[in-house]
Design goal:
Number of strands: 20
Order of helices and strands: EHHEEEEEEEEEEEEHEEHEEHHEHEHEH
Helix content: 25-40%
Largest sheet: 6 strands, mixed
Number of helices: 9
Distance between the termini: 59 Å
Structural class: alpha+beta
CATH class of the largest domain: Alpha Beta
Shape: elongated
Length: 424
């Protein structure tokens, strides 16, 4: 998109020139009148110039597309003047991803660019977990007089920065689905991971007999393995207005939720199981669970582009309880009987607690991953932190698995800690 506008840099010159001319005539001072004529010339000159013709091409390259959290990623930007006019006052602002901070250099640049010439600049950003997409760069070119400027956007096919942490295992409950899969359960039977040996029983399959023990002791024993079952998981992000809260200067809970959802979905797909996405907020977001390259690509695109998951908070900060309740009902309708639900929410109010407990009471396996964005900077924030802890306790007491995630630490570590507590 290109916009042409006036800067009004010469707005007061005409008035000054006319005033000086009047004084020159009244006082009969030729040099004052001559100065007034020069002022009028300066005021007229910018009006004779055409706006600069801006034809630019942008090439952006990043040093690493799959960094680890905290790594610095170098970004090099090259802008080429493909037009036939020299741009004597060109200013550039690169489209840094919204959730990444510039750690070195500057994403702004100024240059004089002749036809066919290229200007370059570089900066570095600090990687944060999640998928980060570069926005269009902005170019502003002014004419020689500075009276007119042309603003345009420059697109470039730059690879997204995919920054993920290693997830040990998907945070799912054991499934009663009889079909074999990749998720280990505590049940014993057919599988590939050793569980224990037991006394041989008549009818046990010969391929499960521990022949080494028989050769050593002369007694028969049967090997049991941990059973593996298939699962279907839906990750639901709480993106209601109340979830757009966070520590000052850092990402809000919805951004943490999008990043966590991406990591959780990747963990399920990594073991070749079915996973889907949902979100409640401005509109209901729903992608049914599935597997495969096309499905994974579609879910990643929804995470980046769906308006409900926008990094910008809604214009109306008031939560709409009826709308959210209707979206939860729609979510329940879309879930299969065996599909497990993982809700990612900061637990800013009672709505998610009530919904999760209702689903759990109906026999649905539910896990809540709660990014902790609470602070203790004011009495109000301290009260909010206590209320959140009470909601975590209510969920645990109601039989819902809870992952209390300190966002200053990795989600993987929070999951490992939660799984140790669940196994006690």
């Amino acid at each position: 998109m290109t916009t042409v506008r006036r800067t009004h840099h010469w707005r007061g010159v005409v008035a000054v020139a006319l005033l000086a001319g009047a004084f020159g005539v009244l006082l009969k001072r030729p040099y004052v009148l001559l100065a007034a004529c020069l002022g009028v010339g300066y005021a007229i000159y910018p009006r004779l110039l055409e706006p600069p013709a801006v034809e630019l091409a942008l090439d952006r390259r990043v040093s690493e597309t799959n960094p680890s959290p905290g790594d610095e990623v170098s970004v090099e930007v090259a802008v080429t003047n493909e037009g036939e006019e020299t741009l004597r006052d060109l200013r550039l602002v690169d489209g840094v991803p919204a959730m990444l901070a510039v750690s070195e250099g500057s994403a702004r640049h100024a240059a004089v660019l002749r036809p066919g010439q290229t200007t370059t600049f570089a900066y570095a950003v600090t990687a944060e977990h999640g998928s980060h997409q570069f926005r269009a760069a902005t170019a502003i070119a002014r004419d020689v007089s500075g009276r007119t400027e042309v603003e345009t956007t420059l697109e470039s096919d730059t690879a997204d920065i995919e920054c993920r942490r290693e997830i040990p295992d998907p945070p799912v409950a054991e499934t009663s689905d009889p079909f074999p899969g990749q998720i280990l359960t505590s049940g014993e039977g057919e599988g590939i991971e050793f569980a224990r040996t037991r006394e041989y029983r008549s009818g046990d399959s010969p391929n499960r007999i521990d022949w080494k023990q028989y050769a050593r002791t002369g007694t028969l024993a049967t090997v049991e393995y941990r059973q593996e079952r298939t699962v279907s998981v839906v990750v639901c992000i709480d993106a209601r207005p109340s979830a757009y809260r966070g520590i000052e200067g850092g990402p809000h809970a919805v951004s943490h939720g999008v990043a966590a959802a991406q990591e959780l979905l990747e963990a399920v797909w990594e073991v070749d199981e079915r996973a889907g996405l949902a979100a409640i907020g401005r509109d209901f977001c729903w992608v049914p669970p599935d597997r495969g390259t096309d499905h994974e690509r579609r879910v990643r695109e929804v995470l980046l582009t769906h308006p409900t998951l926008s990094p910008q908070p809604p214009e109306n900060p008031e939560s709409d309880y009826d709308r959210a309740a209707a979206q939860v009902r729609e979510l329940r309708t879309g879930l299969d009987r065996e599909t497990q639900l993982v809700i990612v929410s900061p637990l800013a109010d009672e709505f998610v607690v009530e919904s999760a407990l209702e689903l759990a009471d109906a026999g649905r396996p539910v896990t809540v991953v709660s990014p902790d964005v609470s602070t203790t900077e004011s009495p109000g924030s301290r009260i909010a932190a206590v209320e959140r802890r009470n909601r975590l306790y209510a969920l645990r007491r109601g039989g819902v698995s809870v992952v209390d995630w300190d966002t200053q630490d990795s989600l993987a570590r929070a999951l490992l800690g939660a799984k140790r507590r669940w196994s006690r």
